[in-house]
Write a structure and sequence with these properties.
Layout lengths: L4 E3 L2 E3 L1 H18 L1 E5 L11 E6 L11 H18 L3 E7 L9 H5 L2 H11 L8 E5 L12 E5 L5 H17 L3 E2 L2 E2 L6 H18 L4 E5 L4 E4 L5
Parallel strand pairs: 3-5, 4-5
Antiparallel strand pairs: 1-2, 4-6, 6-7, 7-10, 8-9, 10-11
Helix pairs in contact: 2-5, 5-6
């Protein structure tokens, strides 16, 4: 049809069709979460920052901890939605599979997560890690600047509180406003604001999360062991 598009039995005029497509695109971006399977590349276009949930600790990969792992997976999605449209949260599975039973742990792409730890000199047994970077996260090259928070020694409740507190703090400290980053991603101002938000979030929790911040201008480490 020349002057519109058919949706079911209805014909959309061109103007409404454009509005519908723009709304669909905005909703897809607002999710700000990607499941990456196998050798698939991490989505790049349209994003300025990325957070990767790297499950590398053996204790998280046993059947008894399957629920803990699934909870982290769902929380990673919620965290991605809070950060804003410029940001993408990423989770690595080997393939599409049910989120139940022992198969959950077996489906985690530990090899890919461990490759990031190797590049960033992070000890796998301190994971899972919440890794954040403003450089496209290609596991073949270490980003010039990143933060990593070690979650391995924490309970499920502590991890939930961390992700909620960090999401809130990024908004409160003005790192993200109206779902948009307020500083140029990767700039010194950006990393300074991000570090302040992370520090405030961890201080409000009152428990000893271990973390590392590395940028070309400064490095701060709090108990994260090198690989």
């Amino acid at each position: 049809m020349r002057n519109g598009a058919v949706l079911g039995r209805f014909v959309l005029p061109p103007a409404l069709l454009v509005a519908f497509l723009l709304l669909a695109a905005a909703q897809a971006r607002a999710q700000a979460f990607a499941i990456v399977k196998g050798k698939e590349p991490i989505p790049r276009e349209g994003y300025k920052t990325w957070s990767l949930f790297l499950v590398t600790n053996q204790d998280w990969l046993v059947p008894a901890n399957a629920k803990r792992l699934v909870d982290l997976y769902w929380r990673s999605q919620a965290f991605g939605r809070v950060i804003g449209d410029d940001h993408l949260a990423v989770w690595f599975w080997k393939e599409t599979a049910p989120l139940e039973g022992a198969a959950v742990a077996e489906n985690v792409d530990v090899e890919r997560a461990t490759a990031y730890c190797r590049r960033l000199q992070l000890k796998p047994s301190d994971g899972p890690y919440l890794l954040f970077t403003a450089t496209y996260p290609d596991e073949s090259t270490a980003p010039s600047a990143f933060t990593a928070i070690a979650l391995g020694s924490k309970s499920a409740d502590e991890v939930v509180r961390l992700l909620k507190q960090l999401g809130d703090q990024l908004v409160i400290d003005g790192v993200v406003r109206d779902r948009t980053l307020q500083h140029a991603a990767g700039s010194d101002d950006f990393w300074s604001a991000w570090f302040d938000a992370t520090r405030h979030a961890l201080a409000n929790l009152g428990s000893g999360f271990r973390f590392v911040v590395r940028t070309p201008s400064f490095t701060i480490e709090s108990g994260v062991s090198p690989d």
